[in-house]
Design a protein that fits this description.
By secondary structure, the chain is mainly beta. The protein has five helices and 17 strands.
């Protein structure tokens, strides 16, 4: 009997030790704001149309996207660990996490889009050790950190930054599409993150989703590969550079290559932190050897503490988008939206402030504006939009 009790206690102790080497945590952000936006469209004939939008609780969160996540790690021994991350966008905390206020749409079976419930964000499993990290699943694009880390206002959702421009609601997105140079997330990705050596960390990523109906039918689908490097070897300085190659192929319809490049940096002087970022986002039709769209943008900004709890930032971005209209439906085939590739001069700015009630709870106010001036006869309307948000964010 004593031996049985001793064995049971030993097994319990071993299980407790094993459990202590593994951990799972729940985290998230709740961000709600009153937002107001206005978009003015002026045609070449001088006709002006104004679109307005007001939300007592901004759908996606203005300073940060509301989210709920789970992450875990297991010690495998020998300096190796297994890890996972599962994260969802809380599409609209003002409607209980639902993006669509239509009851029928909210309860429809099988919906998983961000318009009707949780939106997919991170979803990967990985392994790490002295060799670095290897991850499998839906992840942030390798170039995302290059861009988001070098913006004074971070990756917020208010008009006035090259990251968020066009996100002033459905009207601005449709009529003056976002000029964000990259897709934040990549599905079915394989990612390798190197150890930091001499202050430098390298990320390499690839993803492919291709399908063929028969042995004689060419593969159709999408693939993306890229690499980036971050340097943090000097105190208060960060430098980043990255590139993505994305190819979308549909049999006999389109063969579009997208190339995204970014280089940026920031330096903290103590009294203020300065930021600079340059991006290029280019679409090419490989079937016709045409450059469908080539967008180059530069953003500079500064962020500074006013007191221990109050911070402010401001940024300005400018650039242009050039294109070749090509023949017939070339551009529509590339993106499904010819307006998205309209040539234009682009500029905007953003001002923001935060007040920290605690390390987890922050009040904020953000104002931003953006302008697109069309440059060709086919689409030379002028679009200018403004947006402001006043809100509260809590992290947990």
């Amino acid at each position: 009997m004593k031996k049985s009790l001793f064995a049971l206690a030993a097994v319990g102790a071993f299980a407790g030790a094993a459990q202590a080497q593994s951990s799972v945590s729940v985290y998230g952000i709740m961000d709600g704001a009153y937002t107001a936006s206005e978009v003015n469209i002026t045609t070449t004939a001088g006709a002006k149309t104004t679109h307005q939008q007001r939300n007592t609780v901004n759908g996606d969160g203005a300073l940060s996207t509301s989210r709920l996540g789970f992450r875990g790690v297991e010690d495998l021994g020998g300096g190796m660990k297994a890890n996972f991350n599962l994260e969802y966008d809380l599409v609209n905390i003002g409607t209980g996490g639902q993006g669509n206020t239509n009851a029928a749409a909210e309860t429809s079976a099988g919906t998983s889009s961000t318009a009707n419930g949780f939106g997919a964000r991170l979803s990967f499993i990985g392994i790490e050790g002295g060799f670095g990290q290897f991850r499998i699943g839906r992840q942030e694009s390798n170039i995302h950190a290059t861009i988001a880390s070098n913006l004074a206002g971070g990756a917020n959702n208010v008009l006035g930054s090259l990251y968020s421009s066009g996100d002033a609601g459905s009207t601005m997105t449709t009529l003056g599409p976002s000029v964000r140079p990259h897709s934040v997330y990549v599905n079915q990705a394989l990612t390798f993150i190197s150890p930091t050596f001499a202050g430098a960390t390298i990320t390499v990523q690839t993803s492919k989703n291709a399908y063929s109906a028969s042995s004689t039918t060419p593969l159709a689908g999408a693939s993306q590969s890229g690499a980036s490097i971050a340097y943090t070897g000097v105190k208060n300085l960060r430098l980043d550079a990255g590139m993505i190659f994305e190819n979308v192929v549909e049999a006999s319809v389109r063969n579009v290559k997208r190339t995204t490049k970014a280089i940026g940096g920031n330096y903290d002087f103590g009294i203020a932190q300065v930021f600079a970022l340059h991006t290029q986002n280019k679409f090419e039709n490989l079937n016709t050897n045409e450059t469908l769209s080539d967008t180059k943008l530069t953003e500079v900004g500064v962020k500074a503490p006013v007191t221990n709890v109050i911070g402010v930032w401001g940024n300005y971005f400018t650039g242009n988008r050039n294109n070749s209209l090509g023949t017939s439906t070339t551009m529509a085939q590339a993106t499904g939206n010819t307006v998205a590739l309209a040539a234009a001069d682009i500029k905007g700015f953003q001002l923001g402030t935060t007040y920290a009630f605690s390390k987890r709870t922050t009040a904020y106010g953000i104002y931003g504006t953006q302008q697109l001036d069309g440059k060709n006869a086919a689409n030379n309307a002028k679009l200018d939009g403004t947006m402001y948000a006043v809100g509260l964010r809590h992290t947990f």
